[in-house]
Amino acid sequence: MINLHGKKILFLSVSFFNYEKAIVNRLNELGAEVDFYDERPSNSNFSKGIIRLNKKFYHLKINTYYNRILNEIKDKKYDFFLLIKGEAIPAFFLEKIKESNPEMEMIYYNFDPLKEYPRLISNLTFFDKKFTFEYNDAVQYKLNFRPLFYLDEYKNLTHIQASQYDLVFIGSAHTDRYMVGERVKAIADGLNLKSYFYYYAMGRLAFRLKKIIDKNLKEFDISKVSFKKLNHKQIINFYKNSKSVIDINKPFQNGLTMRTFEVLASGRKLITTNSDIRNYPFYNSDNIMVIDREDIRLDPEFFKTGFKKIDPDVLYKMSLDSFIDCLFGDSQDVYWNAFRNKE
User: Fold this and answer.
1) Which domain of life is it from (predicted)?
2) Class for domain 8-149+321-335, per CATH?
3) CATH topology of domain 152-317
């Protein structure tokens, strides 16, 4: 594990289900001194929408926010700057912090495909180390490849003798998730498998507007959407009561979701629409069922066998500690790329 004791880190990240807070906490536990700022001026649904649509409409608020950060850190010197995603961050801020900390290592990580957020590409030139969870982006833009991670609280959950569910889905309501999820549920019902689906949306008004614009959401039964976000403890309780968990990735995304790592670390089986998972060291058909979102089939035998334990070294590579070690220490491209197209 890299030694971060006494290292000063400026960390900016988009808010993503409190994982950014978990990263800050772990960096602090490792002895680093972290100054953290949300990279968005606001996390209101309106603010998120404007930034994603075109942040130029929001530039005055963005500039004011980042100038305030510059003023607050003007007398500080940092060893590292870490940015995760960077939807709102302006180029002038990156220029200024590099100018005031010329020896500081600039590190970037992205957990979304760049084809979905092409405006992020222009900021890559500011960074010394650039990581992505998306293998295709790593190849196309010459970035380091590093998948996501699990938090320790998900690791090796205790098993309940009689699981309440055979399969559960917990995730945000986007793209074709509802249509895929409903087809999975219908097939599961036909096999007498017990299932539970929890679709989350940020806000009622925002979701209604998205239903008008996004053809994938037109069929979404709004009564099946929850506007209350589950915390990690609640999600873990669902995992404890289920034999398997469903992961429905975005159709244009190959990078593995955070859910993938949490499910496997918890010792639960995974059902996923992401066929690229076959190119990872933890892939095992006994634990992972890959389904075709256009031709969904569930193998009932999959639910009759237990979870096969993951090798401890592989499990560590999937962890937050390994993630931090990779970003601040040596990249892990050789390790993760070794499993590509191994079939």
Assistant:
1) Bacteria
2) alpha beta
3) Rossmann fold (3.40.50)
